[in-house]
Write a structure and sequence with these properties.
Blueprint (H helix, E strand, L loop, with lengths): L1 E8 L4 E7 L12 E7 L13 H9 L3 E6 L10 H15 L1 H4 L1 E11 L1 H12 L6 E5 L28 E6 L8 H12 L4 E6 L11 H4 L11 H14 L38 H5 L2 H6 L1 H10 L9 H7 L5 H7 L6 H8 L6
Parallel strand pairs: 3-4, 3-5, 5-6, 6-7, 7-8
Antiparallel strand pairs: 1-2, 2-4
């Protein structure tokens, strides 16, 4: 493994620690690695060491290159300077991506507390947004007024371009109230953004990876809290793709399978229809209904109304928020989903 300590802004003491793993050779199918940029917390007054290396090592062991960003603090942390620090870090990684074999299309950020605020800003506001954001007991709402003047409320900045988010924290956190997580979840849901959330019933603020070497045994601590690490890696695999067990020539050079989870829960906001659009969106489009006529006839044989008084159209209205692909698979309707998707891809989503 290669390590580097990079000074991004000497005056503001902004640094980036890089942990770069090998590719190819003994790693066979891994030709480029996804990466996680770790952003420690500390109330914009310091960068917590226990939210730096211990977190980076967890993602290293899962196969990700990792970078620890120590950003502007105290009087230097005038917003948006911390966000600009991230942009500097991203640009530096991008400039060295070929040398380090980093896949710049598979970048995630992982931030804690105030660092979670910065990671949330990256997911919503950055010029170079990541493909995923992991936000631990993050400052996402009005709590930011207590630590940094003029900084944004992140939940208010969520839109359709926000990165998929993994959220976690404690209900009993006395430093960053659980409402920060709750408001963020609602904003993500309202904007159709993929997310996963874990609010543990009790535990202190700043638990990092949650093991005894970090937290000790002196405080009440939900024993499931350490699970967030493994769960977040699973989330990254869902939205970035798993490492391939074997990569044959001609399969591309990412070393990753296709993601099983998209940025958005459905494709209703995309330019063209697909089987990942909702039934309401597809059946509300006359051209789609016309082109799928033969497939709809098959569907009518398998989608049984709840009562004799109900029609097929009534059933489609009830299931209007269901993705068409989910209905076809759940009812095991004998149609070619790939063919249906190709048809829908020719129809503008209006």
């Amino acid at each position: 493994m290669k390590t580097e300590h990079i000074v991004l802004d000497e005056k503001m003491n902004v640094t980036l620690d890089a942990y770069i793993q090998g590719t190819a050779g003994e790693y066979r199918s891994i030709t480029k690695r996804p990466a996680v940029i770790v952003i420690p917390g500390g109330g914009y007054m310091f960068c917590s060491d226990r939210e730096a290396d211990p977190v980076a090592f967890a993602y290293l062991s899962a196969g990700y290159d990792t970078f620890i960003l120590r950003y502007s603090l105290n009087e230097d942390a005038v917003w948006p300077k911390p966000l600009q620090d991230y942009e500097m870090a991203y640009s530096y990684i991008s400039e060295h991506a070929q040398e380090w074999n980093v896949n710049m299309d598979k970048i995630a950020v992982c931030g804690f507390s105030a660092g979670g605020h910065l990671a949330g800003a990256v997911a919503t506001l950055a010029e170079h947004k990541p493909q995923a954001a992991i936000l631990g007991y993050p400052v996402l709402a009005e709590t930011v007024d207590e630590i940094l003047k003029d900084a944004p409320y992140i939940y208010q900045k969520v839109d359709k371009d926000t990165a998929p988010c993994f959220l976690f924290g404690s209900r009993s956190d006395s430093v960053v109230h659980v409402n920060n997580l709750i408001k963020m979840q609602q904003a993500l849901a309202d904007n159709n953004i993929t997310f996963e959330a874990h609010i543990y019933p009790f535990g202190p603020h700043g638990f990092s990876v949650g093991n005894d070497a970090i937290q000790g045994k002196g405080m009440a601590f939900c024993e499931r809290i350490p699970h967030w690490v493994e769960d977040s890696i699973g989330f990254l695999q869902d939205v970035l793709g798993k490492f391939k067990s074997d990569q044959k020539p001609g399969e591309g050079n990412t070393g990753l399978e296709e993601p099983v989870c998209k940025q958005h829960v459905d494709d209703d906001g995309e330019a063209w229809l697909s089987v990942d659009c909702t039934i309401g969106r597809i059946f509300g489009n006359p051209k789609a209904v016309e082109k799928l006529d033969k497939h709809i006839k098959v569907m009518k044989e398998y989608v049984v109304p709840f009562s004799p008084e109900m029609s097929f159209d009534d059933m489609m209205d009830i299931m209007r928020m269901t993705k068409l692909k989910d209905l076809l698979m759940e009812r095991q309707i004998p149609v070619d989903i790939k063919e249906i998707n190709e048809i829908l891809n020719t129809i503008p989503n209006i």
